[in-house]
Design a protein that fits this description.
The complex is a heterodimer of chains A (660) and B (138). Chain A has 21 helices and ten strands. By secondary structure, chain A is of the alpha+beta class. The longest helix of chain A has 34 residues. The termini of chain A are far apart. The C terminus of chain A is likely disordered. Chain B is mostly helical. Classes of the chains: A alpha+beta (660), B mainly alpha (138).
Amino acid sequence: MIAELGHLLAFLALAAAVGQSVLGLTTGGDAVRRLAFACGMFATLAMVTLIISFVRLDFSVALVAENSHTLKPLIYRIAGAWGNHEGSMLLWCMVMAGYGAAGAVFMREGALRDRALGVQGLLTTGSFAYLLFASSPFTRLTDPPFDGGGMNPLLQDPAVALHPPALYLGYVGMSFVFSLAAAGLINGQIDRDWARRVRPWALFAWSSLTVGIALGSIWAYYELGWGGWWFWDPVENASFMPWLVSAALIHSLIVTEKRGGMASWTVFLSVLTFILALLGTFLVRSGVMTSVHAFATDPTRGLVLLFGLSIAGGAALALFAWRAPTLKAGPEFDPVSREGALILNNLFLAVAAALVLVGTVTPMILQWLGESGVISREAASLSIGEPYFQLTLAPMVAVLLLFMPLAQAAPWRKADLNPLLKWLIPAAIAAVAGAMVAMALGGWGVWLGFGVLVGVWVVVGVGQDIFRRLGPGGLGRVFRLPLTVWGMAIAHIGVGIFVIGATVETATRSERTFPLRTGEIAEMAGWTFQFQNLEQVEGPNYSALRANILASHDGRTEIIQPETRTFQVARTSTTEVAIRKTIGGDVYVALGDQLREDPSAWRVRIAYHPLIDWVFGGAGLIAVGGFMSLVARLRRKAPAEKPADEPAADAPPVPASAPA
Amino acid sequence: MIAPVIALILQAAQPAEAPLPDPALEARAQALMREIRCTVCENEPVSQSTADMAVDARRRIREEIAKGASDSEVRDFFVSRFGQYVSFRPPVEGWTLALYAFPFALLAGAGMFMGIRAFGRRKRDLAPLPDDRSEGAG
């Protein structure tokens, strides 16, 4: 019964979404709010029924039979509900309807809410129609099997169980930003008030996207067994593009909110972010490329996605082209000002997104041209990977980050560059010193020095800005600073820490593969590893080959146990690496294959990943900063109704507080 | 009679995963290992795989570097056998040069356009606007 109930709930959600879109785009009113709320509830309950089917191992449901198994631990039975195409589509629908419901609950009534819920209703309708008519998760089997087909063992991992929900909160969250943009365009009102109301949604979606990407990266680091945390894989790039554009968006929204400027650009970014999120989903799911995400390669699914993408994107861009000329330009400002700095930020982030887009799709297009015979196979053969992005994206981001502390400290409307530059001399000294130390320790690489220089400059510069804002009261005023300032500072310091970690890790990590027999010793990064023996271990739904390796370091010894697990049901194997944390980084040991030539020896991959925790910690701080800014917005009461077209620019000019 | 011969062959076939004695050469070899694709893996460089193809490729890279080959000669060696697909670094020649140039051209073009416009219309009488404390900066 439960699957039928879920099916019914999904249909009810579809019906509510249809009503929500029709009423939202026509009459508006309280019914829209109630329908959006109902749609969110129905969608959530439909997801709950699917999870129940997975937990109860109801193999009469086709999806459960294909993707679950009696031997699977409970947490992965739950996560299994979205670890497949149909289930993840339901999760997508649920999050989309959930954003509509959240809008119904949190937004104050008015034309913006009604229209936004209406557009969100359209998107939700499309998603549910696709779910129910092209990929229903509730289909029953007439002849249920005794046991299920199991889940891709690579996905049996806590980080990756949470990766899809977090990523969807980000990706699909962009749908609500899109709806708010479309609503603003329909109403012909893209102004400071609009920006103030959009910003929390953009911040939440962007911060969630950051968490989702970081979880995927952490998972790749320890689960795929090769110790890479980012490989410019198309799947990774697909999430990085909307991240870059939404990072630009949350900055341009500041200009629109505080100064009323950049309105048309901000609304364009709001539309673009969701289009890129859809494009990313298309690339990942359509089977254009093979990956752990392409659950089933079915070209029709790709076509449907492409169709939806063109409709949503085309309509929104048409709307934009129609309304953009009516949008007012903001008050005047000098190019050297916080407005100018934020425009620079947007220019760099937009070009960076274009770069990643071209770098991702070019090999795919060439491959497609080659397969359809338009160009020769040789001409179609191209890979674009880390060396390319290191040569193009890295310098671009580095230059952008050089401006970061300046942008934070520059006042609105007009800034005086000279005192700012003088004030940042300590940050410059620290940056050069940091780069020297890094190069002395890690070899005299230009990349290493430049990356650490930029990272330290950002961290110290942002710290200086905090001290400047504290003013004469000094540390006593730490808790008086607005939470938004802390959010910004923490996110920006996170960027600096991430850059330092990423540069040092990439430039100085070392890895080697040792063929080891029993008793043999390998040495690496000041550690010695003695290969003791191999043992067979039975897990709940796998059997593992576990190596016992005696690791010694600084006079301490311990047994570390890297494994390879073979999952009988799925007939695949995974690597469970052994990681030992040290202050400077991770010692990373993975058990590889038996040697062809000598069955008594096994390949053991030993790697040292310096400052790897800075990479993930920096990403974590970026997300924390984003969420803090969001909380700050929610805690702040809506400003007393002052006319929106009376920007702060009319306030009497006061000399900027002299930088300390 | 046969056994020692087999042992000899096995020894010769032992993958030489030992690093090159010269640290500078080894660093170059490791950098190359990170940009040559493991063709039997799913989107991985040979530096990170334990597959046989990767082991062979790593040995080959070290051998070539030890023989004095330049980085681009090693790349060409793999590209001539497996196609451009094997290298994660698009060649900096021919049409792929545009891949490297376009982001900077875009940045410079858009930046110049916006900069000239903004500085051309620059007004001298604007004054800085302090942060509204209640609103914060963010």
